[in-house]
Specification:
The complex is a heterotrimer of chains A (161), B (431) and C (692). With 161 residues, chain A is an alpha+beta fold. Helix content of chain A is 45%, strand content 12%. Chain A starts with a helix and ends with a helix. Chain B has a five-stranded mixed sheet with strand order 3-4-2-1-5. Chain B has a five-stranded mixed sheet with strand order 7-6-10-8-9, with helices on one face. In chain B, α2 packs across α9, α6 packs across α9 and α13 packs antiparallel against α16. The chains are: A alpha+beta (161), B alpha/beta (431), C alpha/beta (692). Chains in contact: A-B, A-C, B-C. Bound molecules: flavin mononucleotide, iron/sulfur cluster and FE2/S2 (inorganic) cluster.
Chain lengths: 161, 431, 692
């Protein structure tokens, strides 16, 4: 399996960071960066990374299935993550979460039919003082409410096809 | 900056926030940047660095509040092994959002803090472990690291002194448990975030089986100022044994939530009423989480407390990670307990029985209870199960799940009674 | 000797070497601290929290499984606080445990059941819904029932640390954590079943055993495995004349907890439908059932005739018959039939080794040395495949004592994963490449296969440090005993040169092919295994004692149905020269032991031989065979007694015997292996249930 030159460069750089004998230290970053590019940690990605780091696919799988950001199935083009943890909850996070589901017509960890959106209820994302918060892919959106959410969705829809 | 600063703030770590191009090395250099490491490398011995940090009364900002200088002094000086500096930027404790700002606005302050720790223990490599959700911070840090290399603040010959230090970023991928120091080290080594058996502690056997200093972002960020202005000056900002300032993350039911740098020991009531502008709509405070969701909750009549480690411990809670979550009179405490338990059940690593099974059972029980399916014996059972976890789990995550739960059942028992016997939640719809 | 530390456990003064864990210090003092995740010899987990104890001055309970003893430490293992904590743990564990004990294989020998009995927590306060998941078949022999699993991680560790296979892992997080096999939905592994036996509950069960019986309905017989030359102790569980399982859960014997697939599941051949049950005699060109009386007389008649005429009788013995049978057979041959044409299939050059270390009996290694030596050199053998128990010991040595492993083999082997030096070469030439490095190994054990034989053995020994100890590896359960007890044309029992050496195996087979032997008597061997020729020995009377109608038996004139080693009493000598006991498991109806068959023939021929009773023959061996004056007590109590074969120049040894290992994989065991359903199923990878 081959990755983009960018990612290959990243991998090469990663492999040099850790002391001798600790090649697999690069595993979690590699998985996340590979997922960013491929869209999911597919069987192919698992096998390829296992090969590169000289561990078994099972060892890779143990790690993939532990981390909640790593997924075996692709998410939508815009992966919308709504925090409902305590600080967000207190400022309307639950309503926002329910609104998001109705607005997009999908539930937790589901993807819209056109593959544009996927939705996930997430734990605290570190935006507690600007709650409720939403993350789209890696971008934060603070002080959200239903209207802002709808506007965001419209904007994302319009974003370069 | 995502919120307005407040006049009551004492801006030490955040003093460069808001400057134009605050992340760039040029801004940093024109505002005292890299002077402390210069001093540490050219005018101070490692022992003196540690002494200075000890005298500052700086305590770990990640949650446990362990004195930073003391921790650094545990690294064996005579070990032939390489030593590592690891930055805990996993910031996942609910209610906490400060490390993100420190990196986003002033990454070089962190790099310099790391260099100071390195100098103190003679380390030559370090890793900044950033939670996966903060992916954008990796780019910011990588850029800053690149700048620092280019200007000779990182590399094989720092500031011409011959001192060598290499710094790298490393990302997590979504796991609260990876903020626990030994689980973080496992994750850094490419494994599941399962904590390690301790002792040995990281200072002796840490990253890659080598002595390791592991601190929170904010802890490192305090080091440059301490070295420049002196440990005592830093100590004087706070209360005895609780030196300096701290970034408090005020959230929940206040008019001006935000991250504010305030002196240690700042009274909680003033924090809520003056800094936070009070509770919206003139409502009353019902409860406060003083330092992230792992802490026992405070009731409204406990908020006249100075916000420092010792004062909070005295009243049976903790200063924790600086996440102050305020709840008004309409908040359903059963729902709060449920939401907190959902978090811990989701984040339990699954290694030890009491945490894995305890959090899951309590989550199910609280869910049933909150949605009207509770029975009278449940209330004691909740407390009992949490008690059976407390102190018996492999790492403190189990305690972190048990402590708030125990405090909620104890302090807000009446609300549980009110939920009993199929009655709808008396606060339904308020949250 | 490390320093001794004094501490107090439950009021008893206890002394233990520094570094000892409290759980073991307590055990030595007779105090059992409960534990699920702790397993002696595997890495520490501190996951189950059952072993918590009170330690004076400690603010909270501590886990005895990770706590090293300290001077003056005061430990209490059973206080109300401790009991309450354990009860709490059990209550947590039981929330999702199905409590299907009445149908669970583990019922009656389940550690969770025992623990609940001890601490209570039987009544449930759990009102939520239990998870349910269907049982999964991971391989022909391994089944997994997820809800029963308590996540002690013993299986994962034994597979990785113990076996070096890494076929099991943990996936997901928190309450979703689950043991997973390496191939997603199934296992590809050694199928050793170690994970099953080490499982404290009924989460991992064996395809061979599941749902067959209850533990208390069986009799347990400790005996020695019938397959490879390592000689593992195995405990057969027998019910109604049927062996239901094999295991070594009490960790007795030289193998500790180890058994490979053959030891654990390779007993089903006993009950195979093709098993011979009556003698067969060739009439009108066809083999037909006959009475014992007729068959015995026919053989006795031909043997007597041949003896009187020419003494051109050839005898091929077995690598799986007992020492007693071998000894009896060679006496019969040499003393009564007057023939010296006797041999067996040789797979390693034991004789050359004894000669090469002449005068230094201490240069012969035993199993335990593979675990304790400072270094292990493996030459010309795929140890994990052919000698899985020795491979297990070597791995444990690396794990526990940082032993250095050196490997010389043309193909890659698992041993390389832990080796400090690997030579992809052959035999002595390969070893020569790392000679300097090995010169520094003061405490070296050398395990060599058939790549090193004849004069090469001497060259090997000369090349290595004088302190090195050796094992000449041989294939089957009593390959070593066959040679020790004189199933050789040039060696009498105990390596005493035969003054009148006879023909070896290859010569005999050739002679029989040419019709130059009157009688060829094959006891438990299958020389015509490749089965090419139709009538290999047209003019030779062929007698075969066998379990099955093998290629050789098919061509015989008379076939006697023989008992398997699990069905008889006696002894085996393993590849290291350790003598171990066989105890009779199930009774046979039909087949007779080879010893009994020999006795019947002798009597029919009117020969006066010692009574064909294992105990009596064993006494004679102890008296007469050099090297077999063993530690009787160790032997009788089911241990391994090291034999001390004479190490002296074996004058007169000169006949070139073919020495060739059959290189059986883990899933093969010579002809016998073909009748093991479990081995078949695994080889074929067809996921059918293995039934005995
Ligand atoms: C479950 C758990 C989660 C933790 N998460 C974090 C975290 O996200 N960030 C952090 O700095 N410390 C976290 N800690 C605390 C660390 O274990 C460690 O004490 C800290 O990073 C040490 O740095 P300090 O002394 O500077 O506070 C966590 C601890 C536990 C038990
Ligand atoms: S308390 Fe136990 S299960 Fe929970 S996170 Fe820690 S080790 Fe894992
Ligand atoms: S045996 Fe100590 S925690 Fe399991």
């Amino acid at each position: 399996m081959t990755f983009s030159p960018d990612l290959e460069a990243r991998f090469e750089n990663l492999a040099k960071r850790y002391p001798a004998g600790y090649l697999r230290a690069a595993l979690v970053p590699m998985l996340l960066y590979a997922q960013d590019e491929v869209g999911a940690v597919t069987d192919e990605v698992v096998a390829e990374i296992a090969r590169r780091l000289k561990i078994t696919p099972l060892q890779v799988n143990e790690v993939v299935s532990y981390y909640s950001m790593l997924r075996r199935e692709p998410a939508g083009r815009h992966h919308i993550q709504v925090c409902t943890n305590i600080s967000c909850l207190l400022r309307g996070g639950r309503h926002l979460w329910e609104h998001a589901q109705t607005r997009l017509g999908v539930g937790h960890k589901q993807r819209s039919a056109d593959g544009q959106f996927s939705l996930e209820e997430v734990e605290c994302i570190g935006a507690c003082s600007w709650a409720p918060a939403v993350q789209v892919n890696y971008d934060f959106h603070h002080d959200m409410n239903a209207e802002k959410f709808d506007a965001l969705v419209e904007k994302l829809k319009g974003d370069g096809k | 900056m995502y919120n307005e600063p407040h006049p009551l703030e004492v801006r030490v770590l955040t003093r460069r926030f808001g400057l134009p191009n605050s992340r760039s090395i040029d801004t940093y250099l024109t505002h005292e940047g890299y002077q402390a490491i210069h001093k540490a490398l050219t005018q101070m011995t490692p022992e003196q660095v540690i002494e200075e940090v000890k005298s500052s009364g700086l305590r770990g900002r990640g949650g446990a509040g362990f004195p930073a200088g003391l921790k650094w002094s545990f690294v064996p000086r005579d070990s032939p092994k390489p030593k590592y500096i690891v930055v805990n930027a996993d910031e996942s404790e609910p209610g906490t959002c400060k490390d993100r700002l420190l990196i986003e606005n002033d990454p070089h302050q962190l790099i310099e803090g790391v260099l100071i720790a390195a100098r103190a223990v003679d380390a030559h490599a370090g890793y900044i472990y950033v939670r996966g959700e903060y992916r954008y911070l990796i780019d910011i840090l990588d850029r800053a690291i690149e700048e620092a290399y280019a200007r000779g603040y990182l590399g094989d010959n720092i500031l011409g002194t011959g001192y060598k230090f290499h710094l790298y970023t490393h990302t997590g991928a979504g796991a609260y448990e990876c903020g626990e120091e030994s689980a973080l080290l496992e994750s850094l080594e490419g494994k599941r975030g399962i904590p390690r058996i301790r002792p040995p502690f990281p200072a002796v056997v840490g990253a890659f089986k080598c002595p390791t200093v592991l601190n929170n972002v904010e802890t490192y960020c305090a080091a440059p100022w301490i070295l420049l202005k002196g440990g005592h000056a830093y100590a004087d900002l706070g209360t005895p044994k609780n030196g300096g300032t701290r970034l408090f993350c005020l959230s929940g039911h206040v008019n001006q939530p935000g991250v504010y740098e305030l002196p240690m020991g700042f009274p909680l009531r003033r924090m809520i009423e003056e800094v936070g502008g009070g509770v919206p709509n003139g409502k009353k405070v019902k409860a406060v989480i003083p330092g992230g969701s792992s802490c026992p909750l405070l009731t409204a009549d406990q908020i006249d407390v100075p916000m420092d480690f010792d004062s909070l411990q005295k009243i049976g809670s903790m200063l924790g990670s600086g996440g102050v979550v305020v709840m008004d009179e309409d908040t359903c405490m059963v729902q709060v307990a449920l939401r907190i338990m959902r978090f811990y059940a989701h984040e339990s690593c699954g290694w030890c029985i009491p945490c894995r099974e305890g959090t899951t059972w309590l989550r199910q029980l609280l869910l049933r209870f909150h949605s009207g399916g509770g029975v009278a014996t449940d209330i004691d059972l909740i407390g009992d199960l949490a008690q059976n976890m407390l102190g018996k789990t492999f790492c403190p995550l189990g305690d972190a799940a048990a402590m708030p739960t125990i405090s909620i059942v104890k302090k807000f028992r009446q609300e549980f009674e009110d939920h009993l016997n199929g009655k709808p939640c008396p606060y339904e719809g308020r949250l | 000797m490390p320093d001794l530390v004094k501490l107090t456990i439950d009021g008893h003064e206890v002394e233990a070497p520094a570094g000892t864990l409290v759980i073991n210090a307590a055990r030595q003092a007779g105090i059992e601290v409960p534990a699920f995740c702790y397993y002696d010899g595997l890495t520490l987990q501190a996951a189950c929290r059952m072993c918590v104890v009170e330690v004076e001055k400690a603010p909270k309970l501590l886990t005895a499984c990770t706590l090293p003893v300290a001077p003056g430490m005061v430990v209490r293992t059973e206080t109300p606080q401790v009991a309450a904590a354990r009860k709490g743990m059990l209550e947590f564990l039981l929330t999702n445990h199905p409590l299907d004990c009445p149908v669970c294989d583990k019922g009656g020998e389940c550690e969770l059941q025992d623990m609940v009995f001890r601490y209570g927590a039987g009544e449930s306060r759990y009102l939520e819904e239990k998870i349910h998941e269907e049982e999964k078949q991971w391989s022909p022999v391994v089944y997994f029932d997820m809800p029963r699993c308590i996540l002690c991680f013993r299986c994962v560790r034994i597979c990785d640390e113990g076996m070096g296979v890494k076929a099991l892992g943990v996936v997901n997080r928190g309450a979703h954590s689950e043991i997973a096999p390496n191939m997603g939905d199934h296992l590809e592994c050694d199928e050793c079943g170690m994970c099953i036996d080490i499982c404290p509950v009924g989460a991992l069960t064996s395809g061979a055993y599941r749902y067959q019986t209850r533990p208390w309905e069986m009799q347990y017989v400790g005996t020695t495995c019938t397959h490879c030359g390592d000689g593992c102790k195995t405990t057969l569980s027998v019910r109604n004349g049927k062996v239901i399982r094999g295991n070594n859960r009490d960790r007795s014997g030289i193998n500790g907890e180890f058994l490979c697939i053959k030891g654990r599941y390779g007993f089903d051949f006993l009950h195979h439908a093709d098993r011979l049950t009556t003698p067969l005699v060739r009439r009108n060109g066809e083999l037909a059932p006959a009475t014992w009386k007729d068959a015995i007389s026919a053989v006795a008649f031909r043997l007597k005739d041949a003896h009187d005429k020419s003494e051109r009788i050839g005898i091929l013995g077995s690598t799986r018959t007992t020492n007693e049978e071998n000894f009896y057979l060679q006496r019969f041959a040499r003393e009564r039939l007057g023939t010296h044409h006797i041999d067996h299939h040789r797979s390693g050059d034991v004789a050359a080794l004894l000669e090469a270390v002449a005068g230094r009996p201490q240069a012969l290694a035993r199993t335990a040395d593979v675990y304790t030596a400072g270094a292990v050199l493996v030459v010309g053998v795929d140890l994990s495949q052919q000698h899985p128990m020795l491979a297990f010991q070597a791995r444990a040595n690396v794990r526990h004592h940082n032993a250095r492993v050196y490997v010389v083999n043309p193909e890659p082997t698992r041993e390389e994963d832990r080796a400090v030096e690997v030579v992809r070469g052959r035999g002595v030439e390969g070893v020569a490449q790392i000679r300097e490095k090995l010169a520094g190994e003061a405490n070296l054990v050398v395990l060599f296969g058939d790549h090193v034989q004849g004069d090469d053995v001497r060259r090997l020994v000369e090349m290595l440090p004088a302190t090195a100890r050796y094992v000449a590896l041989v294939d089957y359960a009593n390959s070593r005993g066959a040679l020790d007890l004189g199933l050789a044309p040039d060696l009498l029992p105990g390596y005493v040169p035969d003054p009148e050496p006879g023909m070896g195996r290859d010569e005999m087979l050739a002679a029989a092919g040419r019709g130059e032997l009157e009688v060829l008597w094959v006891v438990g061997a299958n020389p015509l295994e490749d089965g090419s020729e139709e009538r290999a020995f047209p003019n030779t009377f062929l007698v075969v004692q066998e379990l099955f109608l093998t290629e050789t038996a098919r061509q015989a004139d008379v076939v006697f149905p023989a008992a398997a080693s699990y069905e008889k009493t006696g002894s085996f000598t393993n590849t290291c020269g350790e003598l171990q006991r066989l105890k009779k498991g199930p009774n046979t109806s039909g087949p007779k032991s080879d010893l009994e068959i020999l006795g019947l023939i002798a009597r029919q021929m009117g020969f006066e031989l010692a009574p064909p009773l294992p105990e009596a023959v064993f006494e004679e061996i102890r008296r007469a065979v050099p090297g077999y004056q063993i530690d009787y007590a160790a032997f009788l109590t089911g241990g391994a007694a090291m034999t001390t074969p004479p190490t002296a120049p074996l004058a007169g040894r000169g006949r070139a015997a073919t020495i060739r290992s059959s290189r059986d994989s883990l899933f093969q065991s010579g002809t016998l292996g073909r009748y093991c359903g479990a081995l078949h199923a695994v080889r074929e990878k067809d996921h059918v249930e293995v039934r005995v």
